[in-house]
């Protein structure tokens, strides 16, 4: 554990680093099309659950006929949405 109480994570391997980079890139893309911090902060905790469930449900319905690259892209999008929810929650906790 680091001095600030955070858990230290071993350096990412190349495969994981690519996944994290893709999620961060997608999160940045979402921010440029209006899903930025201000927008996200307007959502309540349950809004994120509903949004993620909807996206996961759509992915589950389409998964059988989907190319692997498209399936991966959608998982990255869902992960970025989850990240937005975590960021929103963290901002709400910090602001009191």
Low-confidence stretches: none
Portion of residues within helices: over 70%
Q: Round the mean pLDDT to the nearest integer and report it.
A: 87
Radius of gyration: 15 Å
Number of helices: 4
N to C succession of SSEs: HHHH
Oligomerization status of the protein chains: single chain
What kind of sheet is the major sheet? none
Strand content: under 5%
Please provide the count of β strands.
0
**How many domains is the backbone divided into?**
1
What's the shape? Answer: globular
Structure, described:
This protein is mainly alpha-helical and 96 residues long. The chain has one domain (14-95). It is built from 4 helices and no strands. The radius of gyration is 15 Å and the shape is globular. The mean pLDDT is 87.
Keywords for this structure?
96 residues, mainly alpha
What is this structure, in a nutshell?
This protein is 72% helix and 0% strand. The chain has helices at 14-32, 37-40, 45-62, 68-95. The mean pLDDT is 87.
SSE order and pairing:
Blueprint: H1 14-32, H2 37-40, H3 45-62, H4 68-95
Helix pairs in contact: 1-4, 3-4
